[in-house]
Amino acid sequence: MKLHGKEIQVGHGIKPNGCLEKIVLSQWKVQAYPQLWGEYGKAVDKARQGIDQKQRQSVEKSVNCLLSALVERKADMENHAVKRICNGECTSEVCLGCKEMRRLYFGCHTCKLLNCIYCTNRKEHEHMEKLIRATMLTIGDLL
């Protein structure tokens, strides 16, 4: 990804916490980071345009960059796994307090017990990993 003709990096399109700045999202014409990924995301649309324009090397480089990002994401997830107080044993479907169904990213409707933040973050990272992998495989299939 580029911003103003230069590769994005921390301080230039990426915040110190690793999140994309809004200007990068607006440049890609998306409102949220997950809209970039998946087999129907903007990254795949852009790759299709690249193939049409005979920019095959650029698209191949994108696939390799996505593979590297997946490797880094996996390592990051393993590093954070040791920090989980709950050892990852929480469930997303049932509230530990009242045993009723609860919303994934918010609290339980009945007893207001919040989800384990560690497990919620893990689920978000796993979901993004699936989307990025789907993007990589879809773009790879275009080649």
Verbal overview:
The chain is mostly helical. The protein has one domain. The chain contains 4 helices and 4 strands. A hairpin with a 2-residue loop joins β1 and β2. α2 packs parallel to α4 and α3 packs antiparallel against α4. The radius of gyration is 18 Å and the shape is globular.
Which geometry do the CA atoms define? globular
Class from secondary-structure proportions:
mainly alpha
Number of helical stretches of at least 4 residues: 4
The main sheet orders its strands as 1-2
What is the string of SSEs from the N terminus onward?
EEEEHHHH
Low-pLDDT runs of 5+ residues are none
Q: Mind summarizing the main beta sheet?
A: 2 strands, antiparallel
CA gyration radius, whole angstroms: 18 Å
* Mean pLDDT score: 78
User: How much of the sequence is in beta strands?
Assistant: 5-15%
Helical percentage: 40-55%
Structure summary, number of beta strands: 4
Distance between the termini: 19 Å
The domain count comes to 1
SSE inventory with pairings:
Blueprint: E1 2-3, E2 6-7, E3 9-10, E4 13-14, H1 22-27, H2 42-52, H3 56-81, H4 117-142
Parallel strand pairs: 3-4
Antiparallel strand pairs: 1-2
